[in-house]
Amino acid sequence: MTMSINLVLLFLLVIIAIAAVTIKDLLSAVILLGAYSFLMALAWVEMQSVDVGFMEATVGAGVTTAFMIAALARTTRWEKK
Amino acid sequence: MNPAKEKGSVVVQTVSRIMIPFIQLFALYVIFHGSLGPGGGFQGGAVFASSFILYIVVFNIARGKKRVPESTNTALSSAGLYIYAGVGLLSMIFSLGAAQYLNYGFIPFTSHFEGNRAIGIDLVEIGVGMTVMAIMISIFFDLAWDKGKEKEE
Amino acid sequence: MKRFKATALILVILLGGLFIYVAEDIPDFGDPNAPSIKSVKLFDLHAGPSENILNQGGIPGALTSALEKRKFPLPSRAEKVPGEERQWNIFIPKNEAHYANEEKYYWVVKEGEQLRIYRYAFVVRWFEKGLKETDVPNMVTHGLADYRGYDTLGETVVIFTAGVSVILLLRRRGKL
What we know:
The complex is a heterotrimer of chains A (81), B (153) and C (176). Chain A is mostly helical. Chain A has one domain. Chain A has helices at 2-22, 26-46, 50-72. In chain A, helix 1 packs antiparallel against helix 2 (26-46). The N and C termini of chain A lie far apart (44 Å). Chain B has one domain. Helices cover 72% and strands 0% of the residues of chain B. Chain C has 2 domains: 38-120, no CATH class; 121-176, no CATH class. Helix content of chain C is 48%, strand content 19%. Chain C is built from 7 helices and 5 strands. Chain C has helices at residues 2-22, 35-38, 50-55, 61-69, 122-134, 139-147, 149-170; strands at residues 39-46, 77-80, 87-92, 103-111, 114-120. Chains in contact: A-B, A-C, B-C. Chain A binds chain B through residues 50-51, 54-55, 58-59, 62-63, 66-67, 70-71, 73-74, and chain B through 30, 38-40, 42-43, 46-47, 49-50, 53, 57, 136, 139-140, 143-145.
Protein backbone atom coordinates (compact mmCIF):
# COMPACT_ATOMS: atom_id res chain seq x y z
CA MET A 1 0.00 0.00 0.00
CA THR A 2 2.58 2.59 1.10
CA MET A 3 4.94 1.29 -1.54
CA SER A 4 2.42 1.99 -4.30
CA ILE A 5 1.79 5.52 -2.94
CA ASN A 6 5.54 6.09 -2.92
CA LEU A 7 5.87 4.85 -6.49
CA VAL A 8 3.05 7.09 -7.75
CA LEU A 9 4.52 10.13 -5.96
CA LEU A 10 8.04 9.53 -7.27
CA PHE A 11 6.78 8.90 -10.80
CA LEU A 12 4.83 12.17 -10.78
CA LEU A 13 7.86 13.96 -9.31
CA VAL A 14 10.09 12.84 -12.18
CA ILE A 15 7.50 13.80 -14.80
CA ILE A 16 6.94 17.26 -13.28
CA ALA A 17 10.68 17.88 -12.95
CA ILE A 18 11.30 17.02 -16.62
CA ALA A 19 8.36 19.20 -17.68
CA ALA A 20 9.61 22.12 -15.58
CA VAL A 21 13.05 21.93 -17.19
CA THR A 22 11.88 21.58 -20.80
CA ILE A 23 8.93 23.97 -20.94
CA LYS A 24 9.41 27.30 -22.75
CA ASP A 25 6.87 29.31 -20.74
CA LEU A 26 8.74 30.45 -17.62
CA LEU A 27 5.60 31.25 -15.64
CA SER A 28 4.39 27.68 -16.19
CA ALA A 29 7.80 26.42 -15.14
CA VAL A 30 7.51 28.32 -11.85
CA ILE A 31 4.03 26.92 -11.20
CA LEU A 32 5.29 23.43 -12.04
CA LEU A 33 8.08 23.89 -9.49
CA GLY A 34 5.41 24.77 -6.95
CA ALA A 35 3.58 21.55 -7.78
CA TYR A 36 6.89 19.69 -7.48
CA SER A 37 7.42 21.13 -4.00
CA PHE A 38 3.92 20.16 -2.93
CA LEU A 39 4.34 16.57 -4.11
CA MET A 40 7.73 16.48 -2.40
CA ALA A 41 6.03 17.62 0.82
CA LEU A 42 3.55 14.75 0.45
CA ALA A 43 6.46 12.35 0.00
CA TRP A 44 8.14 13.67 3.15
CA VAL A 45 4.94 13.26 5.17
CA GLU A 46 4.58 9.74 3.80
CA MET A 47 8.12 9.06 5.08
CA GLN A 48 6.92 10.20 8.55
CA SER A 49 9.05 13.34 8.77
CA VAL A 50 6.29 15.88 9.25
CA ASP A 51 8.57 18.78 10.12
CA VAL A 52 10.50 18.60 6.88
CA GLY A 53 7.26 18.22 4.94
CA PHE A 54 5.86 21.33 6.62
CA MET A 55 9.02 23.24 5.76
CA GLU A 56 8.83 22.09 2.14
CA ALA A 57 5.15 23.06 1.88
CA THR A 58 5.60 26.56 3.33
CA VAL A 59 8.95 27.57 1.90
CA GLY A 60 9.06 25.55 -1.30
CA ALA A 61 5.47 25.72 -2.45
CA GLY A 62 4.52 29.04 -0.87
CA VAL A 63 7.21 31.64 -0.51
CA THR A 64 9.61 30.54 -3.24
CA THR A 65 6.84 30.56 -5.85
CA ALA A 66 5.91 34.11 -4.87
CA PHE A 67 9.58 35.19 -5.06
CA MET A 68 10.05 33.62 -8.48
CA ILE A 69 6.92 35.20 -9.90
CA ALA A 70 8.03 38.56 -8.50
CA ALA A 71 11.40 38.13 -10.16
CA LEU A 72 9.73 37.01 -13.38
CA ALA A 73 7.66 40.21 -13.48
CA ARG A 74 10.91 42.15 -14.00
CA THR A 75 12.03 40.04 -16.96
CA THR A 76 10.25 38.39 -19.89
CA ARG A 77 7.80 35.55 -19.64
CA TRP A 78 8.97 33.50 -22.63
CA GLU A 79 12.31 31.77 -22.91
CA LYS A 80 14.31 32.93 -25.94
CA LYS A 81 15.48 30.35 -28.41
CA MET B 1 0.82 57.73 -7.12
CA ASN B 2 -2.42 57.61 -5.25
CA PRO B 3 -3.01 54.29 -3.49
CA ALA B 4 -6.78 54.67 -3.58
CA LYS B 5 -6.80 54.99 -7.37
CA GLU B 6 -5.48 51.51 -8.20
CA LYS B 7 -8.28 49.03 -7.77
CA GLY B 8 -8.20 45.26 -7.94
CA SER B 9 -10.94 42.69 -7.83
CA VAL B 10 -13.43 43.28 -5.01
CA VAL B 11 -13.96 39.55 -4.41
CA VAL B 12 -10.25 38.81 -3.98
CA GLN B 13 -9.79 41.81 -1.72
CA THR B 14 -12.70 40.92 0.54
CA VAL B 15 -11.75 37.25 0.82
CA SER B 16 -8.12 37.99 1.61
CA ARG B 17 -9.12 40.70 4.09
CA ILE B 18 -11.07 38.03 5.97
CA MET B 19 -8.44 35.31 5.59
CA ILE B 20 -5.24 37.20 6.53
CA PRO B 21 -5.92 37.38 10.31
CA PHE B 22 -6.57 33.65 10.41
CA ILE B 23 -3.37 32.91 8.49
CA GLN B 24 -1.45 35.05 10.99
CA LEU B 25 -3.13 33.30 13.91
CA PHE B 26 -2.13 29.94 12.43
CA ALA B 27 1.43 31.19 12.01
CA LEU B 28 1.59 32.18 15.68
CA TYR B 29 0.14 28.77 16.60
CA VAL B 30 2.85 27.05 14.59
CA ILE B 31 5.60 29.08 16.24
CA PHE B 32 4.40 28.63 19.82
CA HIS B 33 3.50 24.95 19.44
CA GLY B 34 6.80 24.09 17.81
CA SER B 35 7.78 22.22 20.96
CA LEU B 36 4.61 20.08 21.10
CA GLY B 37 3.85 19.23 17.49
CA PRO B 38 5.25 19.68 14.04
CA GLY B 39 6.38 23.17 13.24
CA GLY B 40 8.80 25.66 14.67
CA GLY B 41 10.22 29.08 14.17
CA PHE B 42 11.23 28.75 10.55
CA GLN B 43 7.91 27.36 9.32
CA GLY B 44 5.84 29.78 11.38
CA GLY B 45 7.90 32.72 10.18
CA ALA B 46 7.44 31.63 6.57
CA VAL B 47 3.65 31.36 7.02
CA PHE B 48 3.55 34.78 8.71
CA ALA B 49 5.58 36.29 5.86
CA SER B 50 3.33 34.70 3.24
CA SER B 51 0.27 36.34 4.85
CA PHE B 52 1.91 39.75 4.36
CA ILE B 53 2.94 38.77 0.82
CA LEU B 54 -0.73 37.98 0.13
CA TYR B 55 -1.63 41.46 1.41
CA ILE B 56 0.97 43.06 -0.87
CA VAL B 57 -0.15 41.06 -3.90
CA VAL B 58 -3.87 41.70 -3.42
CA PHE B 59 -3.64 45.38 -2.54
CA ASN B 60 -0.64 47.30 -3.82
CA ILE B 61 2.92 47.89 -2.73
CA ALA B 62 2.31 51.39 -1.40
CA ARG B 63 -0.37 50.15 1.01
CA GLY B 64 1.83 47.20 1.93
CA LYS B 65 4.72 49.53 2.70
CA LYS B 66 2.41 51.59 4.88
CA ARG B 67 1.33 48.44 6.76
CA VAL B 68 4.82 46.89 7.09
CA PRO B 69 7.35 49.71 6.83
CA GLU B 70 10.84 48.84 5.63
CA SER B 71 12.43 50.32 8.74
CA THR B 72 10.36 47.93 10.88
CA ASN B 73 11.49 45.02 8.72
CA THR B 74 15.14 45.85 9.16
CA ALA B 75 14.73 46.32 12.89
CA LEU B 76 12.77 43.06 13.34
CA SER B 77 15.22 40.97 11.33
CA SER B 78 18.15 41.96 13.49
CA ALA B 79 16.05 41.84 16.67
CA GLY B 80 15.31 38.14 16.09
CA LEU B 81 19.00 37.40 15.76
CA TYR B 82 19.70 39.44 18.90
CA ILE B 83 17.08 37.40 20.80
CA TYR B 84 18.76 34.17 19.77
CA ALA B 85 22.26 35.32 20.61
CA GLY B 86 21.04 37.07 23.77
CA VAL B 87 19.40 33.93 25.17
CA GLY B 88 22.66 32.13 24.58
CA LEU B 89 24.56 34.88 26.35
CA LEU B 90 22.08 34.99 29.26
CA SER B 91 22.90 31.41 30.11
CA MET B 92 26.55 32.37 30.46
CA ILE B 93 25.69 35.43 32.53
CA PHE B 94 23.33 33.69 34.95
CA SER B 95 25.71 30.82 35.61
CA LEU B 96 28.60 33.27 36.10
CA GLY B 97 30.55 31.77 33.24
CA ALA B 98 30.24 28.15 34.34
CA ALA B 99 27.89 27.02 31.55
CA GLN B 100 28.57 27.01 27.85
CA TYR B 101 27.05 29.41 25.38
CA LEU B 102 23.44 28.41 24.44
CA ASN B 103 23.07 26.10 27.45
CA TYR B 104 19.56 27.27 28.33
CA GLY B 105 19.21 25.20 31.49
CA PHE B 106 21.03 27.70 33.65
CA ILE B 107 18.65 30.63 33.01
CA PRO B 108 16.36 30.72 36.06
CA PHE B 109 12.91 30.90 34.43
CA THR B 110 11.56 28.11 36.64
CA SER B 111 13.04 25.97 39.37
CA HIS B 112 13.64 22.95 37.09
CA PHE B 113 16.66 22.59 34.85
CA GLU B 114 14.60 20.80 32.18
CA GLY B 115 11.80 23.37 32.30
CA ASN B 116 14.36 26.11 31.77
CA ARG B 117 15.59 24.34 28.68
CA ALA B 118 12.03 24.08 27.31
CA ILE B 119 11.42 27.81 27.80
CA GLY B 120 14.81 28.62 26.29
CA ILE B 121 13.93 26.57 23.21
CA ASP B 122 10.63 28.48 22.87
CA LEU B 123 12.39 31.86 23.08
CA VAL B 124 14.93 30.82 20.48
CA GLU B 125 12.14 29.71 18.14
CA ILE B 126 10.48 33.12 18.50
CA GLY B 127 13.76 34.77 17.51
CA VAL B 128 14.15 32.55 14.45
CA GLY B 129 10.54 33.25 13.44
CA MET B 130 11.01 37.02 13.68
CA THR B 131 14.14 36.96 11.55
CA VAL B 132 12.65 34.70 8.87
CA MET B 133 9.42 36.72 8.66
CA ALA B 134 11.15 40.10 8.35
CA ILE B 135 13.77 38.91 5.86
CA MET B 136 11.19 37.26 3.59
CA ILE B 137 8.94 40.33 3.52
CA SER B 138 11.95 42.54 2.82
CA ILE B 139 13.15 40.31 -0.05
CA PHE B 140 9.66 40.36 -1.56
CA PHE B 141 9.51 44.15 -1.33
CA ASP B 142 12.81 44.39 -3.16
CA LEU B 143 11.83 41.90 -5.86
CA ALA B 144 8.29 43.12 -6.46
CA TRP B 145 7.78 45.36 -9.46
CA ASP B 146 6.27 48.72 -8.68
CA LYS B 147 4.87 50.20 -11.90
CA GLY B 148 4.57 53.76 -10.66
CA LYS B 149 8.03 53.81 -9.19
CA GLU B 150 9.60 52.51 -12.40
CA LYS B 151 7.97 55.33 -14.39
CA GLU B 152 9.40 57.92 -11.99
CA GLU B 153 12.89 56.61 -12.64
CA MET C 1 30.81 18.76 -27.94
CA LYS C 2 29.74 15.22 -28.76
CA ARG C 3 32.59 13.82 -26.68
CA PHE C 4 31.38 15.85 -23.68
CA LYS C 5 27.89 14.46 -24.09
CA ALA C 6 29.15 10.89 -24.23
CA THR C 7 31.31 11.46 -21.15
CA ALA C 8 28.38 13.00 -19.30
CA LEU C 9 26.16 10.05 -20.20
CA ILE C 10 28.74 7.56 -18.96
CA LEU C 11 29.21 9.51 -15.72
CA VAL C 12 25.45 9.66 -15.11
CA ILE C 13 25.09 5.91 -15.69
CA LEU C 14 28.00 5.23 -13.30
CA LEU C 15 26.47 7.50 -10.67
CA GLY C 16 23.09 5.82 -11.02
CA GLY C 17 24.71 2.40 -10.65
CA LEU C 18 26.51 3.61 -7.54
CA PHE C 19 23.25 4.86 -6.03
CA ILE C 20 21.49 1.58 -6.72
CA TYR C 21 24.43 -0.31 -5.18
CA VAL C 22 24.45 1.92 -2.09
CA ALA C 23 20.67 1.78 -1.66
CA GLU C 24 21.02 -1.83 -0.54
CA ASP C 25 22.60 -0.61 2.71
CA ILE C 26 20.02 2.02 3.62
CA PRO C 27 18.17 0.94 6.79
CA ASP C 28 14.40 0.95 7.11
CA PHE C 29 12.75 4.25 7.88
CA GLY C 30 12.60 5.00 11.59
CA ASP C 31 14.41 1.87 12.77
CA PRO C 32 16.39 2.95 15.85
CA ASN C 33 18.40 -0.29 15.93
CA ALA C 34 19.82 -0.01 12.43
CA PRO C 35 23.62 -0.47 12.56
CA SER C 36 24.52 2.81 10.94
CA ILE C 37 22.29 4.75 13.32
CA LYS C 38 22.99 2.94 16.55
CA SER C 39 26.73 2.61 16.84
CA VAL C 40 30.20 3.19 15.42
CA LYS C 41 32.66 0.31 15.44
CA LEU C 42 35.96 1.06 17.17
CA PHE C 43 38.18 -2.05 17.33
CA ASP C 44 38.42 -5.76 18.17
CA LEU C 45 40.02 -7.35 21.24
CA HIS C 46 40.95 -10.90 22.08
CA ALA C 47 38.39 -12.02 24.64
CA GLY C 48 40.24 -14.39 27.00
CA PRO C 49 38.77 -14.38 30.52
CA SER C 50 37.13 -10.98 30.19
CA GLU C 51 33.58 -12.31 29.84
CA ASN C 52 33.41 -13.18 33.53
CA ILE C 53 34.80 -9.80 34.56
CA LEU C 54 32.24 -8.03 32.38
CA ASN C 55 29.44 -10.17 33.81
CA GLN C 56 30.39 -9.09 37.32
CA GLY C 57 30.32 -5.42 36.32
CA GLY C 58 34.07 -4.87 36.18
CA ILE C 59 36.26 -3.64 33.34
CA PRO C 60 39.01 -5.89 31.95
CA GLY C 61 42.48 -4.38 32.04
CA ALA C 62 43.08 -5.03 28.34
CA LEU C 63 40.04 -2.93 27.41
CA THR C 64 41.13 -0.01 29.60
CA SER C 65 44.63 0.05 28.20
CA ALA C 66 43.37 -0.25 24.61
CA LEU C 67 41.02 2.69 25.17
CA GLU C 68 43.77 4.68 26.86
CA LYS C 69 46.14 4.07 23.97
CA ARG C 70 43.55 5.43 21.51
CA LYS C 71 42.72 8.42 23.77
CA PHE C 72 39.03 7.53 24.25
CA PRO C 73 37.17 8.35 27.49
CA LEU C 74 37.99 5.78 30.15
CA PRO C 75 35.25 3.41 31.40
CA SER C 76 34.01 3.01 34.95
CA ARG C 77 31.65 0.02 35.06
CA ALA C 78 29.85 -2.50 32.86
CA GLU C 79 26.27 -3.68 32.76
CA LYS C 80 24.51 -6.41 30.82
CA VAL C 81 22.24 -5.30 28.00
CA PRO C 82 18.77 -6.35 29.16
CA GLY C 83 17.49 -9.39 27.33
CA GLU C 84 20.72 -10.13 25.46
CA GLU C 85 23.44 -12.69 26.14
CA ARG C 86 27.07 -11.68 25.55
CA GLN C 87 26.34 -7.98 25.14
CA TRP C 88 27.32 -5.30 27.63
CA ASN C 89 26.86 -1.55 28.04
CA ILE C 90 29.90 0.22 29.42
CA PHE C 91 29.54 3.50 31.28
CA ILE C 92 31.91 6.42 31.64
CA PRO C 93 32.26 8.10 35.07
CA LYS C 94 30.93 11.44 36.25
CA ASN C 95 32.63 14.66 35.13
CA GLU C 96 34.17 13.35 31.97
CA ALA C 97 35.35 16.18 29.73
CA HIS C 98 32.01 16.66 27.94
CA TYR C 99 29.49 14.88 30.17
CA ALA C 100 28.42 16.02 33.63
CA ASN C 101 26.63 12.78 34.58
CA GLU C 102 27.41 9.11 34.26
CA GLU C 103 26.63 8.11 30.69
CA LYS C 104 26.29 4.89 28.74
CA TYR C 105 29.07 5.20 26.17
CA TYR C 106 30.47 1.91 24.80
CA TRP C 107 28.74 -1.26 23.61
CA VAL C 108 30.64 -4.55 23.73
CA VAL C 109 29.58 -7.68 21.85
CA LYS C 110 31.29 -11.06 22.16
CA GLU C 111 31.42 -13.03 18.92
CA GLY C 112 33.43 -16.25 19.07
CA GLU C 113 36.72 -15.43 20.74
CA GLN C 114 36.65 -11.74 19.85
CA LEU C 115 35.27 -8.78 21.75
CA ARG C 116 33.84 -6.17 19.39
CA ILE C 117 33.97 -2.67 20.89
CA TYR C 118 31.43 -0.16 19.59
CA ARG C 119 30.72 3.42 20.59
CA TYR C 120 27.06 4.44 20.83
CA ALA C 121 26.05 7.05 18.28
CA PHE C 122 24.55 10.29 19.53
CA VAL C 123 21.15 9.29 18.15
CA VAL C 124 20.75 6.70 20.90
CA ARG C 125 21.02 9.36 23.58
CA TRP C 126 18.65 11.53 21.56
CA PHE C 127 16.05 8.73 21.42
CA GLU C 128 16.34 7.67 25.03
CA LYS C 129 16.96 10.89 26.95
CA GLY C 130 15.74 13.76 24.80
CA LEU C 131 12.29 14.13 26.34
CA LYS C 132 13.62 13.72 29.88
CA GLU C 133 16.42 16.22 29.45
CA THR C 134 14.56 19.03 27.74
CA ASP C 135 10.83 18.62 28.54
CA VAL C 136 10.00 19.10 24.85
CA PRO C 137 8.13 16.22 23.18
CA ASN C 138 8.99 17.09 19.58
CA MET C 139 12.29 15.39 18.78
CA VAL C 140 13.10 17.60 15.83
CA THR C 141 12.63 20.82 17.79
CA HIS C 142 14.78 19.92 20.76
CA GLY C 143 17.38 18.54 18.41
CA LEU C 144 17.51 21.70 16.32
CA ALA C 145 17.26 24.29 19.07
CA ASP C 146 19.02 22.64 21.98
CA TYR C 147 21.45 19.86 21.05
CA ARG C 148 22.35 21.52 17.77
CA GLY C 149 21.85 25.13 18.86
CA TYR C 150 24.97 26.46 17.15
CA ASP C 151 23.74 24.97 13.87
CA THR C 152 20.43 26.82 14.03
CA LEU C 153 22.18 30.04 15.02
CA GLY C 154 24.37 29.73 11.93
CA GLU C 155 21.35 28.99 9.76
CA THR C 156 19.60 32.13 11.02
CA VAL C 157 22.74 34.17 10.37
CA VAL C 158 22.79 32.81 6.80
CA ILE C 159 19.18 33.92 6.21
CA PHE C 160 19.93 37.32 7.72
CA THR C 161 22.98 37.71 5.47
CA ALA C 162 20.92 36.77 2.40
CA GLY C 163 18.31 39.40 3.26
CA VAL C 164 20.91 42.09 3.87
CA SER C 165 22.68 41.34 0.59
CA VAL C 166 19.38 41.52 -1.32
CA ILE C 167 18.75 44.90 0.33
CA LEU C 168 22.21 46.11 -0.66
CA LEU C 169 21.98 44.86 -4.25
CA LEU C 170 18.40 45.58 -5.25
CA ARG C 171 17.16 48.49 -3.17
CA ARG C 172 18.08 51.51 -5.26
CA ARG C 173 16.86 54.30 -3.07
CA GLY C 174 14.76 54.97 -0.05
CA LYS C 175 15.57 54.69 3.59
CA LEU C 176 17.19 51.55 4.96
